[in-house]
Design brief:
Layout: H1 7-22, H2 27-34, H3 38-46, H4 53-63, H5 68-77, H6 84-95, E1 98-103, H7 114-124, H8 130-143, E2 154-160, H9 161-165, H10 171-184, E3 190-195, E4 209-213, E5 220-224, E6 229-232, H11 235-251, H12 255-277
């Protein structure tokens, strides 16, 4: 009988073996530390069985990986659409009265259409199964319901012009994504501004960030990497990024001109699609 291997277990097991070998720790030694058999640990690394959450902190201690094993496990094997480190931020956004977000590379998740989201998720990890991709896409779409809730937050978004022009998923996907941005930006609580290519003094060179305001609480700064997210409530840090966001809005096109640019780029993608079909 062929043993069925869960692709999530396999991805985690492969990374676990890599970290163990990098640390110079044998399977026998790690198995003893976990009080499991060497054959069981081998099965975990092969993806033939899952790794219990109870083992993660001990593995991190033995391999001296500083929490990396737990982060990998949460990202690769969680059944939820969002990793553990993002769920608190997702809940915070649902309580927010205002969200300010800047991104120089991608359309933010709250504004992604389904086709664009699918492309980005697949590019982020080509080893995801179709089921995992579908879970994450649905999670992202569900998260956007906060924009159509009875009391939605004020959403202020600044994007680089390159975000509009980078052809993720091809011309058809980008035309649909830009149509979605135009639709959403018609809502009174959504403002999208574009920093044009020609901007010489660009204040957003440090990368993407999000500022979240919840009534009665200090403002939160959220910074995200490929494998983790960091909420920051230290006043000086929040104030600095708040200043940068103000400067970004200052160099960005006004909302009406930004919509005109989105319309223009959408037309270019549609024309490119028609040329490809000719």
């Amino acid at each position: 009988m062929v043993q069925k291997i869960d692709p999530r277990w396999l991805r985690f097991g492969t990374q676990l073996r890599r970290l163990r070998e990098q640390a110079g720790v044998s399977q026998d030694r790690l198995a003893r530390a976990l009080n499991v058999s060497a054959s069981m640990l081998s099965a975990m690394e092969r993806g033939a069985r899952g790794t219990k959450a109870d083992y993660l902190d001990q593995i991190d201690r033995v391999l001296n990986t500083g929490g990396q094993v737990r982060q990998l496990w949460e990202r690769m094997t969680g059944s939820n659409a969002f990793p553990e480190w993002f769920r608190a931020i997702e809940l915070l956004q649902r309580k927010a009265s205002e969200i300010r977000e800047y991104h120089p590379l991608l359309i933010p998740g709250l504004l992604q259409c389904e086709e664009y989201a699918r492309t980005i998720i697949r590019l982020g990890d080509p080893t995801y199964s179709n089921t995992e991709v579908n879970e994450q896409v649905q999670g992202r779409v569900n998260r956007q319901t906060l924009l159509t809730s009875e009391r939605p937050p004020l959403l202020l978004v600044v994007l680089d012009e390159m975000v509009l022009r980078r052809p993720f998923g091809g011309a058809t996907t980008m035309a649909r994504q830009l149509e979605h941005l135009l639709e959403v930006s018609r809502e009174p609580h959504v403002v999208i501004q574009i920093v044009p290519f020609g901007t010489e003094r660009h204040p957003g060179l440090d990368g993407a960030f999000t500022l979240i305001t919840v009534s009665g609480q200090p403002e939160i700064l959220y910074l995200e990497t490929r494998i983790s997210g960091t909420p920051v409530d230290e006043p000086d840090g929040v104030q600095e990024y708040s200043r940068v966001f103000g400067e970004l809005r200052g160099v960005a096109l006004p909302p009406v001109a930004s919509r005109e640019l989105m319309e223009k780029v959408r037309g270019e993608f549609l024309e490119s699609h028609r040329a490809d079909m000719a």
